Alpha/beta hydrolase
Amino acid sequence: MVTDNLTSYYFTVAPALAAAGHDVVMYDQRGHGRSERPATGYRLEDFTDDLAALLDRTDTTGPVHLVGNSFGGTVAFDYALRHPDRVASLLVVESEPPTAAWAAKVSTLLADSANTLRDEQALPRIERTNGRHEARLARQACPLLHGTTIAEDIAASRIPAEERWRALDLPVLAVYGDTSDLAGTAPWLESLLPDCRTHHVAGHGHYVLVNAPRTIGALMLDWVRAGHRQRAEAIRA
């Protein structure tokens, strides 16, 4: 969220999936990358509706394997809950389903980041402390944080009831870096979802998709193959 765009996948895992014969559809979320950046309209359901419209517009038929990183995974979760018949499986990286706690955490983080980046010394300080890459990401975040209602909209998102997640009958693989703040989400997620497996990548944090693309790519390829079988078996049953 705020800094990501489709290049995260283009330069990491998408080529391997395409080379294996899979059709790959990537897009920039609203407000991100080359997509339009409206001043308002950033509730979770807006992002989910965008995904539904994209699949319709591209004539994508049949159940799809949804792959989402960080906030993209949260959008994938929400889409799967609303359109389970259009999803073969979920593969999420460093992500969690939308809950009231998630909305509160993310909206607070966005508001705090926006306030921090209003200080003209913030970007030089980030570069000195965290390096040029982190400073570039922070600079990319400024237009969305300062020019839209994204923090307020996330807080106002429609949050599904917990019992709906317990009824989500789709195969889910959730991947986390073992040093990430989200690594502890795995046991809760496995207890919440009927068909969920988790995997931790050693020595990595939240940016595991970018920093360990071969590992994530191999997991994705194996999962898509297994997901096809799982979904076919479920339909036959």
User: Anything to note?
Assistant: Confidence is low (pLDDT under 50) at residues 232-237. The CA atoms of residues 129 and 135 lie 9 Å apart.
